[in-house]
Amino acid sequence: MTIETPRPWLAGYADGVPHDIEPQTDSLYDLVRGSVEAYPDSVALEFFERTTTYRELGEQIERAAEGLRLLGVQPGDPVALVLPNCPQHIVAFYAVLRLGAIVIEHNPLYTPRELRHQFEDHGAAVVIAWDKVVDTIQAFPADVAVREIISVDVTRAMPLLTRALLRMPVAKARESREALTTKVRGTTPWQKLVASAPVDSHIVAPAVGDVALIQYTSGTTGSPKGATLTHANLVSNAAQARAWVPQIERGSAVVHAVLPMFHAYGLTLCLTFAMSMGARLVLFPKFDPELVLKAVKRRPPTFLPAVPPIYDRLTKAAAEAGVSLDGIEIAISGAMPLSADVVEPWEQASGGYLVEGYGLSECSPVLMANPVAPNRRAGTVGLPLPSTEARVVDPDDPQTDVAAGAEGELIVRGPQVFSGYWQKPDETAAVFVPSDDGGADWFRTGDIVSIDEDGFVHIVDRIKELIITGGFNVAPSEVEEAVLAHPDVVEVAVVGVPDEHSGEQVVAVVVLRDGAELDEQGIRDLARDGLTAYKVPKRVVQADELPRSLIGKVIRREVRNSLLAE
């Protein structure tokens, strides 16, 4: 696939990174099967130091696929996964795909209402769920279509000694065991599923154009929607990731899965990219600095995808514990801005690169990344990946490009971009701009950006989170940056709340350093030094903490809702 339109960012690509990737013809199942065949005796998965080889992984996938087939799963059927990071998650993911069925990932810590909403939307009849959430699913009303639950006890994937310690009759062991597993009834145990015979080799595997995954968006602008991603989308994104890091050899990488794999970012960089590389994937059910550093001491990751707060905590924890981060070659950060205050200590401690990237669930999700090279540019999300096109357009007229270097809405197209939302044709139509050159339509990201003369992309803000006050647009991140300059402010979220005079009022919700008292006027005066008057917060509210998603991103929607509820 060769793109002919101008792409000024290509000059910034690191050595060895191709401008384009080849059209993908393999399915995700083909990718993992290729690693099983190429590296049968290599470690595929590590979980609390218990390992699974690629040969064993392949056998478990085939057996789980047969178990699902016997339960009635057919090609095209949606199958829900509600699992933390664990070996069963990887097996379940690829077993569903082996049958040509569709994976739907869910956050196992969602509230019953949030889970029910998604199940009502996708209608999956078969669920593979962590036993800790089985009660929630069994309590769904009769109009939710679930007919079969496969329950997963994650402790069964742990080493025998660890499992024995969890059964010790002491309070700490009991507390740990209760956090990881519980007894359930009325389900099919996971171990029964993988005790099946291997699926018949004549069962047709999925085609590259088939739907592989329904990935629900975070819902920051309304109810979550399911982004429908094909095997081609996800395989292409894995190929783009491999192309971006040519220095990592297949069959030799070590990847730490500290991000949840039910999230698009963790799913692609840990679950699909790592497996396609024949990597050793070290799984953590949740981010725990102590557990991660123990794994780093045994074998540092070659590749570590995470978010800024994780890098910050690991750097500090490693220094306190005297653990070296040396050997962590490539760290990729996403989901929120990456500051030099995080990058510099990390790169000094690890001797490797920490670079920022950018993506959306609708784009499998990675669209851009900084070069893993000296020309990486702090404060940007980097360059569009191979075979990815990007334009900056007028948000009110997305057919019209803005002037070079000016701010506007980012629209993109490439093999990783989805085809639409699950059973939502109107919402799908609203996010695509028709092409006038015979190519694919352009996806509206909803992000305001600028692209500099070297092709590096600067994120300004989300369109839907812009505050409109007195007819002027205010970017929350710009105000947040100004407020963070105050020495007492540790964290801040800026939102707009209704105001009868100006439409919306700019409000800053701050977390202060220990022992500090709120100096509202001082914060506003400092912000006024760098902002025009209409951007200065009209109110500054103190909070003990800010609501975050599981990957650490501040959820402005919840901040705003809390203010409105007062």
UniProtKB/TrEMBL annotation:
EC number: 6.2.1.3
Protein family membership: Belongs to the ATP-dependent AMP-binding enzyme family.
Pfam families: AMP-binding, AMP-binding_C
Keywords, alphabetical: Ligase
InterPro entries: AMP-bd_C, AMP-bd_C_sf, AMP-binding_CS, AMP-dep_synth/lig_dom, ANL_N_sf, ATP-dep_AMP-bd_enzyme
KW Zinc (keyword) present: no
A single MF term (Gene Ontology): long-chain fatty acid-CoA ligase activity
Limits of the AMP-binding enzyme C-terminal domain: 478-553
Phylogenetic classification of the source organism: Bacteria, Bacillati, Actinomycetota, Actinomycetes, Micrococcales
Keyword Nucleotidyltransferase: no
Domain AMP-dependent synthetase/ligase: residue ranges: 35-422
Protein name: Long-chain acyl-CoA synthetase
